[in-house]
Write a structure and sequence with these properties.
The protein is α+β, with helices and mostly antiparallel strands and 474 residues long. It is 35% helix and 25% strand. The protein contains 14 helices and 23 strands. The chain binds one RNA strand of 77 nucleotides through residues 1, 3-5, 14-15, 18, 22, 29-33, 85, 88-89, 141, 143-147, 150-151, 155, 204, 223-224, 227, 259, 261, 263, 293-296, 324-333, 335, 344, 346-349, 356, 440, 473-474.
Length: 474
RNA sequence: CGGGAAAUAGCACAACUUGGUAGUGCACUUGGUUUGGGACCAAGGGGUUGCAGGUUCAAAUCCUGUUUUCCCGACCA
C-alpha cells in the first residue's frame, strides 16, 4: 500500500522529507549548492500561494514594485545592525574583467536598503504617506547547510516595505500583516500557527521589534514561517527618509517590513504529507481533482469527459488522466502529487450508476449515485478536507504543546517528544542561551496575551517578565 | 565551517578489494494484449563512470584536488 520510493515518516523524518520532495517532483537539485530547479509541480504551488497572498495584500491597499538585484556596498552598510546581522551570509559579486572596482556589490539578502534609499528620494511631505509597497522576488543568503525549501541559498519570497507618518500607523501595519499571514496559514495552507513577538536576540537585525508566526511540524520541530517587523525610525535615520509633517516640521518617517518565503512549501510537506507522498489542502493544490477512467470502454470515457467538463465549469482545476498507465499506477501518482480528490470511473460504476470518489487526506473511498449533484458533493468534500487537514494539524500542535517549570522539565520533554514548550522567562539573554544548550532549544516567541504561568524564570528563577514558547527550530 | 558517508543510464544498484575500456532491475521508445491499487509479451534506445589533475602500456577501479548530496554538530531564515 505504501509508496515504494518514500522512506517511512516515523522511521526517518529527514529522509522522508527529501523523498517526498523528489517523488512529488517539486524540485530538482542544481549544480550550485542551495540553488534548486523548481519543477512544474513545485512552482505551481508557489504560484497559487502568490495569487492568494497578492490579492490579500492588494485588498489592504498595497502595491507591487520591483527593486534591483544588486546592492552597492556603501548602501548596504548604512544601517549598522542590518549589515552586522547579515554580513556572514551576504553573497558578493565580482564583475569579470573589471579592475579597480571602486565598490563591491552584493546580491540582495533582503531589500530594506534599496527600498529605504528609494523612499528617501520620493518622500517629501505627510501628503506622500503612507507608501505601502511589496515586491515578489528572489534573494540570496549564503547558508552553510541547505535543504530544499527549508533553507536554500537562493529563495523566492515577497517582502513588503511601508513608510508611515506616525509610529501608531506603522505599528498597526505591522500587526495587520501578521494577522494576514496568520489568516493565510490557517485558512489556506491549513496550518495552525502561534503568533508572538521575537526576543531581542531573535528579532530581525535593525528592527525595533519583530512579530512572528511559528508553525509546528509533524516531528515536533518548529518553523519560523513569517515575520512582520516594526522599524520605527531606525532605517529612516540611517537612510535619511524625512518628510514635512502636519506642523510643518521635518520628521523621520516610520517604517515596517514583512515577508514570507518558499519555505512555506516545506511547511506544507512537513505538516500534512504522509508515507504516500504529498498531501495538499484543496485551496492551494495546483490540481484539485484527478479523474481516472478505468478501461477504455466508450461509455466510461464519455462519462469521464462529461464529469471533467462539469467540474471545470464549476471552477475546479482537474486532470483527466487518459494515459495508458494501469489504474493502480494512476491512483498512486495522484496520491504522491497530493491531489485532494480522485474520481475513479470504470464500467462497474457505469453499470451500478455510481461514481467512486477517493479523498487524499484520509484515503477513504466512497461511491455516490450518478444522479447526485456532483458539484455540490465535491464542494462540500473539498471543504471537509480543508477543515480536516487544519483540525488534524491543530490537534497535533495542541498535543505537542507543553508547559515547563524549569530546565530539567524542558530537557525531559525535548528528549522524549519535542514540541512547543511554554515557559516563563526573566528577559535576560543569558537565560535564553542557557536553554539553548538543551538540543538547541530557542525562544520561538513571547506570547503577548498570556502572563507567566509560575512567575519564575525557567533558568534563573528570578521574577518572570514574559511567557515564552520554546522550541527546536529548522 | 568541523566530523562522517556517498556520487557509475531518469531512479535503485553491480563491477572497485586484486587496473584490461561497464552490467542488472525499474523507467523510457515501438508494436500488440490489457486495465478496480504501481499490468504482460516481444523488439529497441540510452553511460567519455560528478568534475579536474596525477600514476600506468592501460583507470569506473590506485593517488591528489575540487564540486554536489545526505547525516551529526556549530551558525543562520
Amino acid at each position: 500500500m505504501k509508496n515504494k520510493a518514500i522512506t517511512s515518516r516515523d522511521l526517518d523524518f529527514a529522509k522522508w522529507y527529501t523523498d517526498v520532495v523528489k517523488a512529488a517532483k517539486l524540485v530538482e537539485y542544481s549544480n550550485v549548492k542551495g540553488c534548486m530547479v523548481f519543477e512544474p509541480n513545485g512552482y505551481a504551488i508557489w504560484e497559487n500561494i502568490q495569487t492568494t497572498l497578492d490579492k490579500m495584500f492588494k485588498q489592504t491597499g498595497h502595491k507591487n514594485v520591483y527593486m534591483p538585484l544588486l546592492i552597492p556596498e556603501n548602501l548596504l552598510k548604512k544601517e549598522a545592525e542590518l549589515i552586522e546581522g547579515f554580513a556572514p551570509e551576504v553573497a558578493w559579486v565580482t564583475i569579470g574583467g573589471q579592475k579597480n572596482l571602486e565598490e563591491r556589490m552584493c546580491i540582495r539578502p533582503t531589500s530594506e536598503t534599496l527600498f529605504s534609499d528609494y523612499y528617501s528620494s520620493v518622500v517629501k511631505s505627510y501628503r506622500d504617506l503612507p507608501l505601502k509597497y511589496n515586491q515578489w522576488c528572489n534573494v540570496m543568503r549564503w547558508e552553510k547547510e541547505t535543504r530544499p525549501f527549508l533553507r536554500s541559498r537562493e529563495f523566492l519570497w515577497q517582502e513588503g516595505h511601508t513608510v508611515h507618518e506616525t509610529s501608531k500607523e506603522a505599528e498597526e501595519e505591522t500587526r495587520l500583516m501578521l494577522e494576514i499571514y496568520k489568516d493565510f496559514f490557517e485558512n489556506y495552507l491549513a496550518i495552525p500557527v502561534l503568533t508572538g513577538k521575537k526576543t531581542e536576540k531573535e528579532k530581525f537585525a535593525g528592527a525595533e521589534y519583530t512579530l512572528t508566526i511559528e508553525a509546528l511540524m509533524y516531528n515536533g520541530v518548529s518553523l519560523q514561517s513569517g515575520t512582520s517587523h516594526y522599524f520605527g525610525q531606525k532605517f529612516s535615520k540611517a537612510y535619511d527618509i524625512k518628510f514635512l509633517n502636519r506642523n510643518n516640521e521635518l520628521e523621520y518617517a516610520y517604517q515596517t517590513s514583512w515577508g514570507v518565503t518558499t519555505r512555506m512549501i516545506g511547511a506544507l510537506i512537513m505538516v500534512h504529507s504522509d508515507d504516500n507522498g504529498l498531501v495538499l489542502p484543496p485551496k492551494i493544490a495546483p490540481t484539485q481533482i484527478s479523474i481516472i477512467p478505468i478501461g477504455n470502454n466508450e461509455n466510461v470515457i464519455n462519462k469521464a469527459n462529461e464529469i471533467n467538463n462539469i467540474l471545470i465549469n464549476a471552477g475546479y482545476i482537474t486532470n483527466l488522466d487518459m494515459s495508458d498507465k494501469s489504474p493502480g499506477f494512476k491512483f498512486a501518482e495522484a496520491e504522491v502529487n497530493g491531489v485532494p480528490v480522485r474520481i475513479e470511473l470504470g464500467s462497474r460504476d457505469i453499470e451500478n450508476n455510481v461514481i467512486t470518489i477517493a479523498r487524499r487526506d484520509t484515503r477513504e473511498k466512497n461511491t455516490i449515485s450518478i444522479d447526485e449533484d456532483i458539484v455540490k458533493y465535491i464542494n462540500s468534500l473539498m471543504n471537509e478536507i480543508q477543515n480536516n487537514l487544519f483540525e488534524t494539524a491543530k490537534k497535533r500542535m495542541n498535543e505537542k504543546t507543553f508547559t515547563a517549570k524549569n530546565l530539567d522539565e524542558i530537557e525531559k520533554i525535548m528528549n522524549t517528544q519535542p514540541g512547543f514548550i511554554k515557559g516563563d522567562w526573566c528577559g535576560d539573554e543569558n537565560c535564553e542561551l542557557k536553554v539553548k544548550e538543551i538540543r538547541g532549544t530557542k525562544s520561538r516567541c513571547i506570547l503577548e496575551n498570556e502572563k507567566p504561568i509560575y512567575g519564575k524564570c525557567v533558568v534563573c528563577e528570578k521574577e518572570a517578565k514574559h511567557l515564552v514558547v520554546w522550541g527546536i527550530q529548522y
